[in-house]
Amino acid sequence: xxxxxxATLEAGPEQILYAGILEKGMYFGLLxxxxxxxxxxxxxxxxxxxxxxxxxxxxxxVHDYLEHAHIKTGWGWVGMLKYGDFLNFIGIAILAGVxxxxxxxxxxxxxxxxxxxxxxxxxxxxxxxSLAASGILAVGH
Length: 141
Prior knowledge:
The protein is an all-alpha fold. It has helices at residues 13-41, 54-58, 62-69, 88-112, 116-134.
């Protein structure tokens, strides 16, 4: 009887799609991180915090640093992309957001396979991650 039910350890098509998108998104995010770090390190764009003043901020906690440097929290970094030291946030946002894209991409496949429960769960996961990233669900800072 145990022979009749063989467990398979092969990934399903949804898992393959999810992993493929995650891999491409991860490589793209890393590429952006390398490029934006090079722009910052080689001084191609002016930094918000001048390099000769950076050591002054190292001893501060996050709250004091943000207050002293006049940096907005949350999505405030988007308005500071004209500075070389804030460009790396683009790559970080890509790496953080690729999971949302992965979940949304597998929903049609789950629906075609009549896996409605998994499709709803994937949608809810993408929704919760999107709301968390938006700052709507922010508590505290």
